[in-house]
Design brief:
CATH topology of the largest domain: Glycosyltransferase
Strand order of the largest sheet: 1-2
Number of domains: 2
Radius of gyration: 21 Å
Largest sheet: 2 strands, antiparallel
Distance between the termini: 25 Å
Number of helices: 10
Shape: globular
Oligomer: single chain
Number of strands: 2
Structural class: mainly alpha
Strand content: under 5%
Order of helices and strands: HHHHHHHHEEHH
Length: about 290
């Protein structure tokens, strides 16, 4: 769930000296998590689908550590722990969860994949290069390669750890001996991942970049008087195209005002400048529609 990035983002903001950014309504996100837990004990982003592993461990255990100690909260944490252990605990979670946990010393970095930053230097004609990946994957792989190489670590108090989620003690196996699932995360979380290498670099000149990153993440948040949650992604271009297809397939005439106005909107939002995406584009590379509004 992308929502777990809210408290993580606040911690990053405080360490980066961006005090104002640390004033997000974190209590509202806690309210959302308390209400969003499934009766079986897990938190999951896909409605009506049971998670295939231990759920979202950072969401299910690390975040609630900051909740007030009440009988209801204790019952929720106990339920979450039982569900996670029933699915094999931390060792059975997917690779992205393990990376989150390694950032806080709750998973051994040796149990994460190797992804050298030098990957960015491979030319487009190489059998394996950054341009073979989709746009969202490129924006994740590049900062993640820095994180996996530098292996930053933010220690947490002993009582904030998750040792109880290891069925057979703290696991220290290596990536080469364990099969991992392919990560696939929400786009808002991808934006958060971009901020980690900038913060880890520790350079003052990155403050503007960090602020812009926080602004981008804020644009995904939906907050009301009691709760705060985060949209996985915002995709008006894609959504408009799909809506057009649905309308036309249902019998709406091509000259209908809705079809005409949405077509004009799409034309006006074409990408007219070349970027990394154009490396693999053929024909008129500088005239494409992106996933989002450029």
């Amino acid at each position: 769930m992308a929502d777990s990035a809210i408290p993580l983002l606040n911690g990053l903001a405080k360490q980066a000296g961006l005090v104002d950014r640390a004033k997000r309504a974190i209590s509202h996100s806690h309210s959302y998590f308390r209400d969003a837990q499934h009766p079986d004990g897990y938190w999951w982003g896909e409605f009506g689908i049971e998670p295939h592993d231990g759920g979202r461990v950072p969401d299910a255990k690390s975040l609630p550590r900051t909740w007030p100690a009440t009988p209801q909260i204790s019952a929720q944490l106990t339920s979450a722990r039982e569900f996670i252990l029933s699915r094999g605990g931390v060792p059975k979670t997917r690779v992205f969860t393990k990376i989150w946990l390694a950032l806080f010393g709750q998973w051994d970095w040796s149990g994460t994949p190797n992804l050298p930053p030098e990957l960015i230097l491979l030319p487009s004609w190489a059998p394996f290069n950054i341009y073979e990946f989709s746009s969202w994957a490129r924006a994740t792989i590049v900062p993640m390669s820095i994180i996996l190489t530098e292996r930053p670590y933010c220690p947490v108090p002993d009582d904030a750890g998750i040792d109880e989620l290891y069925p057979h003690g703290h696991w220290t196996g290596s990536w080469s001996t364990k099969k991992q699932t392919v990560p696939g995360e929400a786009f808002s979380r991808r934006g958060f991942i971009r901020l980690l290498p900038l913060h880890h670099a520790g350079e003052d000149e990155f403050s503007d970049a960090l602020n812009k990153g926080f602004d981008g993440f804020d644009s995904f948040a939906i907050e009301d008087e009691e709760t705060c949650t985060v949209q996985a992604c915002v995709s008006p271009v894609w959504d408009t195209c799909l809506a057009q297809v649905a309308l036309l397939e249902s019998g709406l005439a091509p000259d209908d005002p809705m079809v005409q106005s949405s077509t004009r909107w799409l034309v006006n939002n074409q990408i007219l400048e070349e970027g990394d995406w154009s490396v693999r584009a053929k024909g008129n590379a500088a005239r494409r529609l992106g996933f989002r509004v450029p």
